Predict the structure.
Amino acid sequence: MERNVDVAHLGHVEIYTDKFDESLDFFTRVYGLTESGRDETSAYLRAFDDYEFQSLKLTRHHTTGVGHIGYRAASPEALQRRVAVIEKAGYGLGWVEGDKGHGRAYRFQDPFGHVFELYWDTVRYQAPEAERPALKNIAQRYHGRGCCPRRIDHVNLLAEDVAVFRSFMETCLGSRVTEMIQLDNGRVGGCWFTVNNKTYDLACTEEHGGGAGRLHHVTYATDQREDILRAADVFLENGVHIETGPHKHAIQGTFFLYVWEPAGNRVELANAGARLILQPDWETVVWTETERRKGQAWGLKTIDTFHTHGTPPAHRKAG
Amino acid sequence: MERNVDVAHLGHVEIYTDKFDESLDFFTRVYGLTESGRDETSAYLRAFDDYEFQSLKLTRHHTTGVGHIGYRAASPEALQRRVAVIEKAGYGLGWVEGDKGHGRAYRFQDPFGHVFELYWDTVRYQAPEAERPALKNIAQRYHGRGCCPRRIDHVNLLAEDVAVFRSFMETCLGSRVTEMIQLDNGRVGGCWFTVNNKTYDLACTEEHGGGAGRLHHVTYATDQREDILRAADVFLENGVHIETGPHKHAIQGTFFLYVWEPAGNRVELANAGARLILQPDWETVVWTETERRKGQAWGLKTIDTFHTHGTPPAHRKAG
Amino acid sequence: MERNVDVAHLGHVEIYTDKFDESLDFFTRVYGLTESGRDETSAYLRAFDDYEFQSLKLTRHHTTGVGHIGYRAASPEALQRRVAVIEKAGYGLGWVEGDKGHGRAYRFQDPFGHVFELYWDTVRYQAPEAERPALKNIAQRYHGRGCCPRRIDHVNLLAEDVAVFRSFMETCLGSRVTEMIQLDNGRVGGCWFTVNNKTYDLACTEEHGGGAGRLHHVTYATDQREDILRAADVFLENGVHIETGPHKHAIQGTFFLYVWEPAGNRVELANAGARLILQPDWETVVWTETERRKGQAWGLKTIDTFHTHGTPPAHRKAG
Amino acid sequence: MERNVDVAHLGHVEIYTDKFDESLDFFTRVYGLTESGRDETSAYLRAFDDYEFQSLKLTRHHTTGVGHIGYRAASPEALQRRVAVIEKAGYGLGWVEGDKGHGRAYRFQDPFGHVFELYWDTVRYQAPEAERPALKNIAQRYHGRGCCPRRIDHVNLLAEDVAVFRSFMETCLGSRVTEMIQLDNGRVGGCWFTVNNKTYDLACTEEHGGGAGRLHHVTYATDQREDILRAADVFLENGVHIETGPHKHAIQGTFFLYVWEPAGNRVELANAGARLILQPDWETVVWTETERRKGQAWGLKTIDTFHTHGTPPAHRKAG
């Protein structure tokens, strides 16, 4: 069967914060995104080489977590094809008008409460004079402020049943599962999805905290691992809670660093090196619990909060 | 119009050498590829995370240059579609049986004498015991021998008329032109092509030496820029001719290092950082001669031999 | 008071192993040292830019641990001055004839059983043809084999009373204490010593295992942090036990990675960046237990074995 | 003969600028130094881990170049010893009161017009609240602004007769010559000096422009080579003239990048990796013209302006 390529890439993630000013300061001054716009409820943020107006929409809210996840379709026709499939599958919510960052979008929802949208019409970032790059093949100048990642990389969501979530992703976005965790109890512990040649653009791991529609983390990509080591010092000096890392994931082999932004949302910086999934008939790499017990690639044990902390906070404790 | 995605990725390049033993020693011990097989005329080589049996076929020959360039199709159906298009366009040569690295392939030729092939059936690399990786999501262990690049990245060919070559690539492979050089005399100085999310998998620059079907260079990707700095010392200590670099290309922003293998073929190591072309409606970045005169990204002037040296050697001098 | 500069630098460490062949294979093929000589009991090893014949003497023994630690004096006269001081202080053992790596040396012993020696006459490494560097200002070619560190960096010893050990070091070698840990119970938890501009060449931490004269680890310096990230993959692929890291020490700010060689001796790779102690009136940085509880620089908690594992193994467990 | 160690380290360099505001903006915002003080004529600047109040004194002047070079003595007694030697040798100028950055200093002058000073009493940098580091063993927080080097590294001066300059350095500071260039005409092309374990803290190369007392460049050290690659992008985006690099010097093996600050003074960023001169009987490495013709370590040809451009501008052209 030929691989579906109707969806081009992850476009943006909307993050909720109940500490808007502190979160905005973190994302711009420390994490190194640029604010490209603002409206009553949200700041529109982007990494220096994101070609769209936004890749992170930071929204004032009564709590934390993810507002929605936006994917860009591969063409107007592909968008129509996808919407038809989503509607038929019963996940559809309907069209919305878009915002400062893109045009009309079709919204749909997974069984765990995460809202997605798919769109074609987008707003390309037009760098103002002061942000114009020296080289015309990047979207904005390399400003060097804060951690200065290059582009949005992926989002990680929590779901009570990852197998169900997998079905949702395969149906709605045509995503491939590049790697996954198969638990001894028969359940799926986690799935890593991609719609293109990136090793993953979305991951889903099992919800252990009783929450619904929760966010595990959102991630931007740096050009080099050294950017992440440097970022660790930037976080340290700015009093940011470093949760774990820098280290290398066993799954996907990504070099990583996790911190919590001031409102509590987990944010990652990651570097995949030159690893891509170019193989059209890639077979899902399946990790067992035994294999997972070895820890991360170089032996780091996964920190407890990594299994329990999500946003918004859940009422019952992880078990 | 929807983007054609019938072709998955560059699979392998066949390189001719008239100093087989020295070239093989270079590619395995210094450059850091692994020999996965051998037949009467050729050694089959691969980088540690190439999933196929081969990505570089090193072939004994009376001279140097490129034997052929292999691309893998996205599916058996896609292969059939492509072959129909290629035959109709008049570039076709016909089917061949394949070799140790892949099954039957359809061969075709550009107007300048470079032979291409497109195939679906491939031979996946099966790591022998000693090469089995600690982490199951890479194709072979990270052996750390020589420069140890991760995967094949791209090939650069010389053509007397780049605009004609562009038409060939768009027709046969459905490649996108991500960046190009527009000369003041109206000619196209160079084109960078991709069939997937890589920034380029093949480049074509203008032939100034009067040769036909010549190779400019073949390139493997390293995970980090530091790998390339380290490689420079490895080349230095092994008496390899370093032609230019390490530096950063203005075009595509790739960090690079060029050397000549013992038989004279130019070989590159490159790192693109986290840069990908995910945008479905990417518009070709066009560089003018004036812009090119600024040199590479950080000001390095392009070295003379870069404009003249190709393989096999050409009879008349560059003009 | 003027700083004593009679001692130039740490010269070599003798390591005992009860698995000589495995240890030698580790140190040469994986860790990346070069064997410059061999006698009945020992292999003489060195990093590519150590100027002396040896920096690590690997000796067959019935158990593991440290044989002796050698420092080179700043001049023949300085050696005589030091010997007079050491003898007078009662730490002296007397002169020995030296070995393949250096001439006569004066041996002395700390109260916890570690043997030291001080020497002036040394044997400079003369690179054989195959190891001659391309650039004449390094001692041996950058061979790129294994982790390929540049030079010996420091050794860490365990002592029941670090304050007593400090007195020994200040008396015998004129070492400065650049950083230290002051425990709440009034004891000294650890001291970092240097005789030159390096931030430390010897560290001593409190023995919790009831052993005597034990080794905590020996360390070589890499040029870049990236070399250590790369080394982590080399260790992983070679089945070496990675104990902790890569991460950044809070104390001294050194980027580190700890592994156990096959016989059980702990070995580190470290990178200090551009940090040096050039200040002649440097004041010891004193860390409290409260500060230490924050973990390493970026929050990594110190792994349990780091407090208990030393070589040779001790009979009673750490308390 | 025992090595003289009366001088501890290079302390600061005074740089003249006829574009004070532009130069100050460059050194603080782009190059990444911190302004610790200001008086009528000068701004006092420092890298984040320089322990003194200043390492670069930027002074308004009618032209460019170097005001003076300050070295810190190893002790008050050592200062007195040195002054006696300098006076006797006839290089002395006399005592000055010092400035915001240090106490009284003894000034002296080389035969080519460069003014030096030697001092013991210094002003340690006291980080204000906002600049206090998370880890107490560095002088100031790692601010991450601009290129953010760690510490001053060295200065390079031009002299009509390098052999004469060498004699001056050996006499006044007790410097060792770690490497040098021996020209075919019998003259010394360049000398690299150190007073401590750094590979060099001052270099002197032959003046070809007819100037007197000129500066070739001043250099700060970064922790990693990657910091220099990142800096190249920072310079590029800020319109700074990149003269040459990044590349690796053959002499001393230092990774380098040279730029011109707005007033025209050449400024370098450099990384020596883990290379130190710990050997007490180090023998000067002597490079011949033939060896120098190979270019830099990886083959980069030295750019013309590197041989001619110094500050202030000289009246006659280089010959």
Notes: Chain B has six helices and 17 strands. Chain B has one domain: 7-308. The mean pLDDT of chain B is 96. The interface with chain C takes residues 133-135, 141-144, 146, 224, 226-227, 230, 233-234, 236-237, 239 of chain B (CB under 8 Å).
